[in-house]
Amino acid sequence: MLKDRTVMAVLAAKDINRAKDFYRDKLGLEPSDSMEEDSLIYTGGNGTSFLIYQTENAGSAKNTQMGWETDNLESEMEELKGRGVVFEDYDFPGLKTENGVATNDWGKAAWFLDSEGNILNISQRT
Questions:
Q1: What is the mean pLDDT of the chain?
Q2: N or C: which end of the chain has fewer CB within 10 A?
């Protein structure tokens, strides 16, 4: 069943070339494959991957769409900031960031937008 299958996240992009530039220049990622002309597949660790495809619906979600887990959140944030990534600040019931970082019993996390308005995050478990 599905519990034993590889999972692939899917993100939307209004401009696939702009998205490709963002993921290369800001996140240091190169596509590993393509399913069709207006799509890109990126491979991550432990058999994970994500697909970006071109659609006019990009950037319409108001929730975290994909994230990476790290062993050192602050170090990752500094490297990404050095590449021009801007971290979001939130103040919602149950979620408040300080200097872009939310902390709770689970760990800590930070969020940023990609070039297409997708909400991405990095997190570190306690």
A1: 94
A2: N
Q: How far apart are CA 88 and CA 69, in angstroms?
A: 17
Entry pTM = 0.92
- Domains delineated in the chain: 2-55+66-125 (3.10.180.10)
How remote is the C-alpha of 95 from its chain's centroid? Answer: 18
Structure-model confidence comparison of residues 33 and 29, the more confident one: 29
Query: Around 13, how many Cα atoms within 13 Å sit in the side-chain half-sphere?
Result: 21
pLDDT band at 37 (very low <50, low <70, confident <90, very high): confident
Give the Cα separation of 107 and 123 in Å (integer): 7
* Contacts by 18-24, CB closer than 8 A, 24 or more apart: 18/115, 18/116, 19/52, 19/114, 19/115, 19/116, 20/52, 21/115, 22/114, 22/115, 22/116, 23/52, 23/114
* Mean pLDDT of the region 92-100: 94
Strand order in the sheet with 8-13: 8-13, 49-54, 39-43
